[in-house]
Design a protein that fits this description.
Radius of gyration: 23 Å
Strand order of the largest sheet: 5-9-8-7-6
Structural class: alpha+beta
Number of strands: 11
Keywords: Activator, DNA damage, DNA repair, DNA-binding, Metal-binding, Methyltransferase, Transcription, Transcription regulation, Transferase, Zinc
Distance between the termini: 44 Å
Protein name: DNA-3-methyladenine glycosylase II
EC number: 3.2.2.21
CATH class of one domain: Mainly Alpha
CATH superfamily of one domain: Homeodomain-like
Cofactor: Zn(2+)
Strand content: 5-15%
GO molecular function, one term: zinc ion binding
């Protein structure tokens, strides 16, 4: 979408592929919408286009009550881009501005606050404060419509500095008071908020005072296009670490569950595989020790399930190549799963060197039992948080039964994560992080690439030395020298090859790698 005319054509055709890619403001009504809004298409002269919801709000438009533009998937562009704007957007989504302010965001990016403000405003039509504010408004709406929490508590849980700021923002964005927004959701059947049972405490168990998850929030996690839920849940199930993750049910009706270590507390997330009625979203339930973690928890689950991907662009590109073309047709909507905890993924990548998926899962389970922090109260098969890097930096690791060279590598990576030598933040510079990883003894291209793909969410990683990839290439009749043509979606090509291997009857991608240098 490079011109306003082409954007308007997408609006006229109600093309959902561009939901989240841009927003339109309608001058005659004062509202802003997603491109696929079912309302009558406004005249071209009455439409203005904006790259973000925050920019539309800053121009004085309020969110459409019919299409809910604040609930669209995030733009896949921010995952592709490695520049300042892309990195900043990933960090803002993770709640960095809410926790550390613009100064903290700028420090993480390595720029001055003025430079960050200027570049974001020039390209996105809104600065970091406005972008974070739009995200807080969405979080507030979710809490108002899905929980029975008091409005005052929701204000601070959503990240607002005061109740007055919260009230003013909700009125400005949604043209309703918080109470009216909640009441409308009850009338429309969108959630339990305001019902007597919710007010009585079914959404919150205030008896839990020991730091365990206490607040429950039910969410719809939107995605665009097709979604290969079977591929994603199968990928996660084969790698589910005992104590930290579990998958319940049978294919087609599975529920993925895991513990979360968040900035303000702990949590448990559940995501259902079953297709949602009407499609376009996955059902998710979050139980959080502190509701201030809601935005961060949602973004981490979205990254884990790769919900902001653009399957249209991926399929269009990969289908151009004869060897790969059958794979997107066979598995439409395939995703490249990320991670809910980048430090956890780094440790798991080291444990996965030169072993099968099943062996890596067993080793990681032993690590969790020996060094993970137990939950105050188990939740089903979930018993621990994954060990923090600091806890592993000096650990003997004898319980794992692996060679000393591998234990030394694990301690080296844990130390680098703990002291900041290696940064795996959502907005980390991917090239710099990969160089820092490769400088560590025991870390080779496979391990660094795997971390870059899953921990940093890079959509353009290829692992030619992986046994599963080599098997998939052979099945597809492709050659690793062709991989450069698959940019910038090589991570998806890699997952297609892994998935083809799985479908061929192998025990998933072997996750073996050449010995790290």
């Amino acid at each position: 979408m490079t011109t306003d005319e082409s954007r308007y054509e997408a609006v006229r055709s109600r093309d959902a592929r561009f939901d989240g890619v841009f927003f339109l403001g309608v001058r005659t009504t004062g509202i802003y919408c997603r491109p696929s809004c079912p309302a009558v298409t406004p005249k071209r002269e009455n439409v203005r286009f904006y790259p973000t919801a925050a920019a539309a709000q800053g121009a004085g438009f309020r969110a459409c009550r019919r299409c809910r533009p604040d609930a669209v998937p995030g733009s896949a562009e921010w995952n592709v881009r490695a520049d300042l704007v892309g990195r900043a957007m990933r960090m803002i989504s993770d709640g960095v501005v809410d926790r550390e302010g613009v100064a903290g965001l700028a420090a993480r990016l390595g720029y001055s606050p003025r430079q960050v403000q200027r570049q974001l405003t020039a390209e996105l039509g809104a600065g970091p404060v406005a972008l974070a504010r739009a995200q807080r408004a969405h979080t507030a709406r979710v809490l108002l419509q899905t929980t029975g929490l008091p409005v005052t508590e929701i204000a601070f849980a959503a990240g607002f500095a005061s109740v007055r700021q919260f009230n003013d923002t909700v009125r400005e964005v949604y043209a309703r008071t918080p109470s009216a927004l909640r009441a409308a959701s009850v009338r429309g059947g969108h959630g339990p908020a305001g019902r007597p049972a919710a007010r009585a405490g079914t959404a919150r168990d205030d008896t839990a005072r020991d730091g365990g998850p206490v607040s429950g929030v039910t969410l719809r996690l939107a995605y665009r296009g097709d979604y290969a839920a079977g591929q994603v849940f199968g990928f996660l199930e084969r790698r589910a670490v005992p104590g930290v993750e579990e998958v319940r049910g049978q294919p087609g009706g599975r529920t993925y569950r895991r513990t979360l270590d968040l900035p303000y507390g702990t949590g448990v997330a559940e995501v259902d595989e079953s297709p949602a009625r009407g499609g376009g979203w996955l059902a998710c339930r979050l139980r959080l020790g502190d509701l201030r973690d809601l935005t961060t928890a949602v973004q981490r689950i979205r990254r884990l399930f790769d919900l902001d991907a653009d399957p249209f662009a991926v399929t269009e590109h990969l289908s151009r190549y004869e060897a790969l073309a059958p794979l997107p047709a066979r598995t439409p909507g395939l995703r490249s799963p990320g991670t809910a905890d980048a430090h956890e993924l780094a440790v798991r990548a080291v444990l996965g060197q030169q072993v099968t998926v099943g062996a890596a899962r067993t080793l990681t389970g032993r690590l969790v039992q020996a060094y993970g922090k137990p939950l105050a109260a188990p939740s089903g098969a979930l018993t621990h948080l994954f060990p923090e890097p600091g806890a592993l930096a000096e650990a003997p690791l004898g319980e794992l039964g692996i060679p000393e060279s591998r234990r030394r590598t694990l301690r080296t990576v844990a130390t680098a994560l703990a002291d900041g030598t290696v940064v795996l933040d959502p907005g980390a510079d991917r090239d710099a992080t990969e160089r820092a990883l490769l400088a560590l003894p025991g870390i080779g291209p496979w391990t660094a690439g795997y971390m870059r793909m899953r921990a940093l969410g890079d959509p353009d990683v290829f692992l030619p030395g992986d046994v599963g990839v080599r098997h998939g290439l052979a099945l597809a009749g492709a050659d690793p020298t062709q991989a450069d043509r698959w940019r910038p979606w090589r991570s998806y090509a890699l997952h297609h090859l892994w998935h083809a291997t799985t479908q061929a009857g192998a025990d998933g991608p072997s996750q073996r790698a050449p010995r790290a240098a």
